[in-house]
Design a protein that fits this description.
Length: 172
């Protein structure tokens, strides 16, 4: 082998190592994603896209019937106002039992969360509604059919920490 082949092999090895590091550290390579109005959302494992549009997406875990809905509420930071309005509306609704309302700090991002139960359906449905301001947009994230708060909080943290601007589109 002459020196050119050795150089080619070294470059090939460096390239393969670089690709491995990129794929290993990426949150989107090898996982499902959806786009909600210029923001890429990486789906938690076992979830698939049920429906999506320009400013909303619905994902479902077909094994456990857990559902998550995302909605972009706009460019302004209206998470706290939306949270308070929704909480007041739910408290006035006799078919909804508000179990808890809280503010969670996840990775220096404030998440406003309402845990409630829909009493009007045949089976009582657990619903959690979260409002978060990230990627310069306010999002409403609704979780349905979660029976375990640990799984809900784990999925919520995964979703929020993996929401990134979609740089393939022009940003606001």
């Amino acid at each position: 082998m002459d020196k050119r082949w050795i150089g080619i092999l070294i470059i090939l090895i460096i390239g393969l190592c670089s690709m491995y590091i990129i794929v290993d550290s990426s949150t989107t390579v090898g996982t499902a994603i959806t786009v909600v109005n210029k923001t890429v959302v990486t789906l938690p494992s076992h979830f698939s896209i049920e429906d999506s549009g320009n400013n909303y997406a619905k994902i479902v875990n077909k094994n456990t019937k857990e559902k998550v809905s995302f909605k972009d509420l706009g460019k302004k930071d209206i998470a706290l106002d939306s949270f308070n309005n929704k909480l007041n509306g739910l408290n006035k609704d006799s078919g909804i039992n508000v179990r808890n309302s809280s503010t969670i700090d996840m990775n220096s991002t404030k998440v406003y969360k309402i845990d409630c139960q829909n009493l009007t359906t045949e089976n009582t449905t657990n619903i959690s509604i979260c409002y978060v301001y990230t990627c310069y947009h306010t999002f409403s994230i609704q979780f349905k059919n979660y029976n375990n708060d640990t799984n809900l909080n784990k999925d919520l943290e995964f979703i929020i920490s993996n929401m990134k601007p979609d740089f393939k589109q022009s940003q606001d």
